[in-house]
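User: quick one, fold this
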Amino acid sequence: MPQHQTPTSRTWATRLASLMLVSALAACGSSVKLEDAPVEDRNTSTGQSGDGTTGVDPRNVAEVQVPGIDVPQPAALSRVVYFDYDSFAVRADSTAVLEANARFLKANPNRRVGLEGHTDERGSREYNIALGQKRAEAVRRALALLGVSESQMEPVSFGEERPAAMGMDETSYGKNRRVEVTYR
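Assistant:
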């Protein structure tokens, strides 16, 4: 014989459950009154004052030096390796670029390069970052096979963030699918 609840017993069960929920939520509340909490004044000489200035004496701030940002790039040395769509395989037409850069790096062991991987704008941001990194790693492996020291190379990915061309056509996309060898 199936059990039947009367509307009255269901109503009482619902009310009891609601009362238990309200009691549980009330127990989670804080007993600290916000009006009684101490206020700490953090206005120091390095903090921001009320007039919008930082309180930092600009005469004591040193200029930031980014290493390698103004290093001259080797003249007459092609430094861009292009890739096919959705690929990180180094193309055969990049051999001369890679060999020239490898010769220069081996002759100048104190020079370092950033291998900056780029993609066109198709694909998600995460995918393009990963693809740019794979392209940079592919160029690093190719240069290592040509005798360049691992300590001279740093592969990084910019994904689609720094396009070489702004167009929405295959010519522009082709210019953006690249690794730039940047000397530091």
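User: anything notable?
Assistant: Strands lie at 80-82, 113-118, 153-159, 178-183.
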